[in-house]
Amino acid sequence: MHYGNWHGWGLIVGLILFVIPLWKILTKAGFHGAWALLALIPVINIIALWIFAFSDWPKERRSA
User: Fold this and answer.
1) Of 5, 6, 39, 58, which one's alpha carbon is 20 to 30 angstroms from that of 15?
2) Do the beta carbons of residue 19 and residue 37 sit within 8 Å?
């Protein structure tokens, strides 16, 4: 099967719809936005999600 150029477009759409908003959320939480790139790596993305969910966020540490 040949799907043409859809693979390239899928990556671009994925970046726009997922990584860019995640970058913005992480920045607002006090993390460096580049951590959002971990979302593109299978298994690592799940581990990173759990780490972010249960760690102290930098914004929370500053306001305390």
Assistant:
1) 58
2) yes
